[in-house]
Amino acid sequence: MKILKIQTLRGPNYWSIRRHKLVLMRLDLEEWADKTTSEIPGFYEGLIAALPSLNDHHCSPGHQGGFLQRVREGTMMGHVIEHVALELQEMAGMPVGFGRTRETATSGIYQVVIEYQHEQAGRYAARAGVRMCQSIAETGTYPAAELVQDLRDLREFAASAALGPSTETLIKEAEARGIPWIPLSARFMIQLGYGVHQKRIQATLSNRTGVLGVELACDKEGTKNILASAGVPVPRGTVINYLDELRGAIEDVGGYPIVLKPLDGNHGRGITIDINSWEAAEEAYDLASAASKTKSVIVERYYVGRDHRVLVVNGQVIAVAERVPANVVGNGRSTVEQLIEEVNRDPQRGDGHDNVLTRITIDKLSLDLLQKQGYAMDSVVPAGERVFLRATANLSTGGIAVDRTDEIHPENVWLFSRVAKIIGLDIAGIDVVTPDISQPLRDVNGVIVEVNAAPGFRMHVAPSQGLPRNVAGAVFDMLFPSPQPSRVPILAVTGTNGKTTTTRLLAHIVKQTGQITGYTTTDGTYIGDYLVESGDNTGPQSAQLILSDPTVEVAVLETARGGILRSGLGFDQCDVGVVLNVAADHLGIGDIDTVEQLGKLKSVLVESVMPKGYAVLNADDPLVSQMAQRVKAQIAYFSMNPDNELVAKHTAAGGLAAIYENGYLSILKGDWTLRIEQAVNVPLTMGGR
């Protein structure tokens, strides 16, 4: 078998309006073109041996084992490759379910379409599917080592493409609210919304986040000083730059126990708490200094209490989580090492920030803490005994989170909201040490330890115990308060002839409203009165340029067949979709061989019109007018024939249409006619000819 071409679809496309992320592989089956799977000795058995989980694929029979039934009875190799490529992604932790396989007009050459979550993983899975099926067809087996490597590679592709748990949470909320998003080409930023209404995020920083607030939050000593001067309870502490300053700093904060941490650290790196001796303080100083970019170290009084993270969005307390340091609970049989291995087998734990929880790793700090508790890695822990492996409670070092949102005292709610405003952060993570979050901090000697910009969301979205909180919803309520829109109107035009002229006319009309109009044509991309980029710009990349521009208020997009075939539409939905005509031009390109197939391709545009928008269809072209059957939007027809039966029937039912009648360009709705202008007065009509 030979792969002729692999391409990626990222928007509404010929194969699916709803599923945008598809890999399209053009495949020559070569020697297997005339053989079904039942005619290949040992293929069915080899396939089951390699991927027994294919039994879960229903396929057209509609029941478990349906696909394997098709293989046993005999199906084409392209169909099998489709299912194998989907299953490989499933096994690698990327659930996908959509696939299609169709033979082209050239015998033996197939188009195989598979869904993907991550683009590179989808392309890899398509190639791996061909490799596996080729091996089984030729030898009856697929080496187990090859499958292990395929799954390892797929997981690596998924990990490298992952957005991170906090960003992923925001993206899911955007999709749930119908807000489009575009990954930008710099600094891992995401654009939310289109044109003039767009907002940007980077992790949990937003375009509303002030640089002064971020800078202050990164300066832990500066944060503490600002809060202390505002009457906020904070730890007693000081900053030092040299080891010989440490003894005096300990005396300044009131003696042991103390905490040492880097001035500009993050994720709990370099922090040592509950220090009670000079030897431990020296060691902790070296650790904190190494983790600090400026080599500056904070010396603070240690406060006894539980560690909490409070999330404040737009001045409102949204969620509170108690963070419990990494620990294991004994069973009377297992060693500390065995208990850690058991905890790390939890599928919710991953490396770094890849999963809801982080795997527990052991370092010198962990071993020292174990020793203080009277244990070593090979110690058997009595049943019910809890052994801590980290002094700090960060999730990134294996800790867990317990939701405490409903327990917080009203005075603390007021205090934390005030703190976020004092520091100047729209999204703030406030670290609080207190014995009881349900009591005012002052009453129980609680303190605010840090204020963090770009706080992580995963402890609130998926706590180990307690209710998950929709913290992303609060962010979107802030960025897109009702009734503020997230989209600009999109008017899109396709057809065989007349697209550029129609696009220019629409752009001209919209400009008369005083709005900044971005439009794409076969001769260039324009914003307002200026050319941005010359060339044939009628594909998804040019559409994205317009929709990413923060000055554009309305988008008018010429949309050619080539771009839809190559990558799908450059937008998920539009407000107005126009199909001018379908003629037998450019047939034979991209396996579009008939005018009927060309009509289906162009109908992708109007099938993507929002339900409240309009699909504008040529009533004089049967291939265009029949698209109305697949459209969810309102329909508007146009015709050069004032007596067109379809238009008459449509307007009699209260529908909208435009016609050329008695020398006029006119709009019809129901039983009324609005004459716009005589055609002879429009210069473009060449005097009405």
Summed up:
Helix content is 32%, strand content 24%. By secondary structure, it is α+β, with helices and mostly antiparallel strands. It is flat, with a radius of gyration of 32 Å.
Largest beta-sheet details: 11 strands, mixed
The number of distinct helices, counting runs of at least 4 residues, comes to: 21
Report the principal-axis shape.
flat
Strand percentage: 15-25%
Give the distance, in angstroms, between the N- and C-terminal Cα atoms.
56 Å
The mean pLDDT is 93
Indicate the radius of gyration in whole angstroms: 32 Å
Number of E-state strands:
32
Strand order of the largest sheet: 25-24-23-26-22-27-28-29-30-31-32
Low-confidence stretches: none
Structural class, from helix and strand content? Answer: alpha+beta
Task: Please give the share of residues in helix.
Answer: 25-40%
Describe this structure in words.
It contains 21 helices and 32 strands. With 689 residues, it is an alpha+beta fold. An eleven-stranded mixed beta sheet has the order 25-24-23-26-22-27-28-29-30-31-32, sandwiched between helices. Helix 4 (119-139) runs antiparallel to helix 5. The longest helix has 21 residues, at 119-139. The chain is flat.
Which key phrases capture this entry?
689 residues; alpha+beta; eleven-stranded mixed beta sheet; five-stranded antiparallel beta sheet; 32 strands; 24% strand
